[in-house]
Sequence to fold (199 residues):
Amino acid sequence: MTSPEQAGPTRPARLAGLGLLALALIALVIGLIQLLGGGDSEQAAPPPPSSESQPPPPPPSETPTSAPPAPPTTSATSMVPPPAPPTTTSSVSPPAPPPQPPNRSEPVRVYNNSFIEGLAERAASDFRASGWNVVDTGPHQGKVPVTTVYYRPGTAEEAQAKELAQQFGLRVEPRFDGIKDASPGIIVIVTREYDEKSK
Fold:
């Protein structure tokens, strides 16, 4: 039988040994956990969440909005118009419309202011050959210095009288007092110089 003096020093040593053994066991358990399961969770990335685990989208609002949807934004390159297709030289342009015949509807009266017989009739024949509507010929009592085409200002006679004068190289003027009240139309008073010009 052991005495109390002999049991004293062995009991703390036994407790210390049990404590060391418990620490070693805990360290072994932690090491096994890290080796088997803990190391894989640190190195491998977690798998992406599945679509089943995502929350459902919110339900559409039942109140309609009055604002129209915003138009899609366009980049600067989409604003550039597409290049025009190349033009081909084989394309035929539509023919030009035929020129309109000049308006020579105003009546023309030709009067002779010279001593040359038939000068008014000869001038009238020249005018008719160019499409003018000569309605009368005759003598003119008075003095006109050069063959002149007369018109009433502000009427259709004016434009046609200027055209007739330009065509035959004649002077053109508004009617003077001596013929101011004559019948409507263009009046041409020919002089001897027309005879020399027409030769």
Remarks:
- The longest strand covers residues 133-139.
